[in-house]
């Protein structure tokens, strides 16, 4: 039972780190096709967190980030 507490704490720290990384998204519209971005599809660029409307758009952007213009809100 004692061993459970450190691993729970570690899990909590990991979750916090994931949310802290990148911060809130800088854009609202998907940079690939202009549809509304969703927080579950995101990547962390130099400018901050960038969100996309779908996993396809996210992958397309990651392959060639300079081909798409991110419009900050
Ligand atoms: Zn898209």
Please render the helix and strand layout as text.
Layout: H1 4-20, E1 38-44, E2 49-52, H2 55-63
Antiparallel strand pairs: 1-2
What's the average pLDDT? 84
Quickly give the structural class.
Answer: alpha+beta
The count of strands amounts to 2
What integer value in Å does the Rg equal? Answer: 16 Å
Q: Output the number of helix runs.
A: 2
Small-molecule binders = zinc ion
First-residue to last-residue Cα separation: 48 Å
Largest sheet: 2 strands, antiparallel
Beta fraction of the residues? 15-25%
Task: Note the main attributes of this structure.
alpha+beta; single chain; binds zinc ion; 36% helix; 2 helices; two-stranded antiparallel ribbon; 73 residues
Structure description:
The chain is α+β, with helices and mostly antiparallel strands and 73 residues long. It has a domain of 51 residues. Helices cover 36% and strands 15% of the residues. It is built from two helices and two strands. A two-stranded antiparallel ribbon has the order 1-2.
Quick take:
With 73 residues, the chain is an alpha+beta fold. The protein is built from two helices and two strands; from the N terminus they run H-E-E-H. A hairpin with a 4-residue loop joins strand 1 and strand 2.
